[in-house]
Task: inverse folding
């Protein structure tokens, strides 16, 4: 267990945390700002991941696209596509409230997953897409990882900064007003439907970006990657633990949950060999337990939303 | 005092070796099983078989010293598998890995972690044909044949038996689909007709509508790529009950003893399966004996391939003598002809031959493992029918 190895591991964790932080930020726009219970995070993640893959991967027979475009184009297209998909979905489902919306979005995410599983022409079906380029992928292993870490966190910082600006702007105040009391906001002449749709689309676009960042890091995508357990529910836990409504909380939640999820395996490996296999399940249990504890003792999360008194500038 | 001076001397020697080349300070192998996730049921037997091979190697006292191993969970999921692979390579410091167990997990883990890091990977159970065409710098191998081989072999066997017209149903995952597509390509190329070609999702209560569609083309034979303990059994039962087809053919997933118990042998007179068989039956027997002694079921799914994968990694480590960069080359050398034949459990003999600088050729419990240029094994298959409550070989498949 040398220092360089640990450093490599930390870099890898950093990249995945960055990807989950993006997802968590996207969900925070929807749930934290606008109070939309989106249980279909995996769907938008998938759209972004697959679209960016299709734009940048080499062409193969029996599948559309494969245009070998630059990664940046793929990322932009991923955001646009996720937003575009979110628009009709939002149009239809945002008329539902809270738990009904959750059920509708779960359904939509499952539809997206099944389409990607079965439509070979579109997605390579169950075998997925391989040969996706990674920016700085030609560098030696360590440097490539490090460069990608920089890229990922660059994205996180840009998105974080943009969201903070947005939240401080009148739009952000309006969103909170709608979330807290929809009738009052409507009575003051705010277009509630349109604002909610905006938040839904913005969040979805960020999730799409997360998918794109993910797919170029892994260089391959198969339908297993959009497992709701690993995408939707883990992200929800991150946001709730970190503190919904607070962007820093969203990022903190991603850091804490992923570090626990990943490094707890190192701890269980210290157990005697006879129970090491069974012990792999402990981390699944620990994450579930943490959610219970947080919801019981600190429902507002580690970094609560706080009052948004802003200096006028 | 003498003991201590010996210790100092050997430590110094070890230090010399360590500094003289890119030596293994200690040979380390990561065992990446699908411990949680969809194949959790198979994982314990697979991991235990890998451990059995490495424990035998350690007991024989290889020249490279004790091989340390550690389990990692690839969860049959790309995120979990890359995380596990990163830990295996960087924190544990693995020289080689056995696994990951599932194709999707393997594709992500090798592309983003093990190939860039230059770590050898031998999977006992990832069967996707996509793995064949990876740009893997000769670092990805598998002891289980690609689905491509079995599908093609089955197509040739059916044509040889005079079956020219079939309907094909497959479970919609990489296993079912891989087999079905390979089968289709070979069957049609050799002059057979496929009347219907349909995928289905698993865990449905009724497949009667699927069967009605499949029967439309007028084929007498249904080729069913599915699992005999899951939707495959449901489809077979409903097809027999409703008289949809006269003859049924499955692949290794359908070879399930429970299927015979549940449906009854009398109903399965026209049911055949193809399944991989060890070319050298003696090799499997040697593994089976050791496995039973260790309290393992040698016939558990992927137990034999897992044992072979771990055994080959251990032999490659021994043959590479401390140079990680030479591992793929060493793996090919110990697995393929020419060389003295080594059967499962013959560690002492292998150790001695390698020490003398002679070539060895490992004949595994699950096949001969003559790797091709892509790191795949061709595998050998036989065609089985149901008889006496079990599956009986009808013929070898070419």
Result:
């Amino acid at each position: 267990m040398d220092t360089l190895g640990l450093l490599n591991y930390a870099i890898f964790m950093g990249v995945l945390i960055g990807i989950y932080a993006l997802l968590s930020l996207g969900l925070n726009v929807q749930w934290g700002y606008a109070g939309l219970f989106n249980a279909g995070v995996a769907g938008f993640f998938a759209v972004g991941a697959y679209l960016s893959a299709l734009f940048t991967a080499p062409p193969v027979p029996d599948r559309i696209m494969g245009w070998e475009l630059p990664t940046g184009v793929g990322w932009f297209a991923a955001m646009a596509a996720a937003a575009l998909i979110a628009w009709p979905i939002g149009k239809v489902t945002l008329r539902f409230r809270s738990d009904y919306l959750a059920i509708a979005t779960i359904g939509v995410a499952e539809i997206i997953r099944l389409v990607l599983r079965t439509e070979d022409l579109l997605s390579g079906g169950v075998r997925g897409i391989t040969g996706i380029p990674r920016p700085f992928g030609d560098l030696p292993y360590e440097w490539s990882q490090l460069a990608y870490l920089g890229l990922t966190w660059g994205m996180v910082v840009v998105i974080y900064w943009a969201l903070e600006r947005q939240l401080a702007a009148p739009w952000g105040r309006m969103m909170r007003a709608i979330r807290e009391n929809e009738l009052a906001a409507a009575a003051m002449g705010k277009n509630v439907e349109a604002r909610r749709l905006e938040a839904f689309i913005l969040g979805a676009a960020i999730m799409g970006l997360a998918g794109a960042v993910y797919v170029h890091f892994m260089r391959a995508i198969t339908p297993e990657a959009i497992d709701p357990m690993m995408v939707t529910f883990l992200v929800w836990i991150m946001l709730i633990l970190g503190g919904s409504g607070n962007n820093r909380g969203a990022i903190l939640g991603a850091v804490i949950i992923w570090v626990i999820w990943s490094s707890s395996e190192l701890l269980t490996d210290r157990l005697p060999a006879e129970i090491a296999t069974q012990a792999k399940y402990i981390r699944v249990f620990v994450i579930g337990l943490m959610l219970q504890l947080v919801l019981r003792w600190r429902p507002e999360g580690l970094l609560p939303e706080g009052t948004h008194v802003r200096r006028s500038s | 005092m003498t003991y201590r001076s010996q210790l100092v001397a050997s430590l110094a020697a070890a230090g010399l070796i360590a500094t003289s080349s890119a030596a293994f300070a200690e040979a380390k192998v990561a065992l990446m099983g699908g411990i949680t996730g969809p194949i959790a049921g198979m994982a314990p037997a697979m991991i235990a078989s890998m451990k059995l091979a490495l424990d035998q190697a350690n007991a024989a006292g290889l020249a490279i010293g004790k091989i340390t191993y550690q389990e990692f969970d690839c969860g049959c999921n790309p995120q979990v598998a890359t995380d596990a692979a990163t830990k295996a390579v960087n924190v544990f410091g693995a020289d080689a890995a056995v696994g990951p167990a599932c194709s999707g997990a393997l594709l992500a883990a090798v592309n983003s972690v093990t190939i860039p890091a230059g770590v050898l990977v031998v999977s006992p159970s990832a069967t996707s044909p996509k793995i064949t065409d990876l740009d893997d710098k000769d670092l990805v191998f598998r002891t289980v044949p690609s689905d491509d081989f079995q599908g093609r072999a089955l197509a040739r066997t059916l044509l040889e038996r005079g079956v020219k017209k079939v309907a094909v149903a497959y479970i919609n995952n990489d296993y079912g689909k891989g087999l079905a597509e390979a089968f289709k390509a070979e069957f049609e190329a050799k002059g057979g007709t496929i009347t219907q070609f349909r995928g289905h999702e698993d865990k449905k209560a009724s497949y009667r509508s699927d069967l009605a569609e499949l029967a439309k083309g007028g084929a007498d034979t249904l080729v069913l790529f599915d699992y005999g303990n899951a939707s495959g059994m449901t489809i077979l039962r409903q097809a027999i009950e409703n008289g949809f087809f006269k003859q049924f053919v499955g692949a290794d997933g359908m070879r399930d003893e429970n299927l015979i118990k549940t449906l009854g042998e009398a109903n399965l007179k026209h049911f055949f399966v193809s399944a991989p068989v060890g070319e050298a039956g003696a090799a499997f027997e040697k593994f089976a004996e050791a496995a039973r002694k260790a309290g393992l079921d040698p016939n558990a799914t992927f137990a034999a391939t897992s044992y072979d994968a771990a055994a080959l990694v251990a032999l490659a480590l021994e043959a590479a003598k401390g140079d990680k960069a030479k591992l793929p080359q060493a793996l090919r050398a110990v697995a393929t002809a020419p060389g003295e034949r080594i059967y499962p459990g013959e560690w002492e003999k292998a150790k001695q031959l390698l020490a003398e600088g002679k070539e060895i050729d490992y004949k595994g419990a699950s096949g001969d493992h003559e790797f091709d240029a892509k790191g795949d094994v061709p595998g050998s298959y036989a065609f089985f029918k149901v008889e006496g409550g079990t599956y009986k070989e009808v013929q070898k498949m070419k």
About this structure: The radius of gyration of chain A is 20 Å. The interface with chain B takes residues 1-2, 4-9, 12-13, 16, 117-118, 125-128, 130-131, 134, 140-141, 144, 217-225, 227, 230, 261-262, 265-266, 269, 276-277, 280-281, 284 of chain A (CB under 8 Å). Strands of chain A lie at 129-130, 220-221. Chain A is about 70% helix and 0% strand.
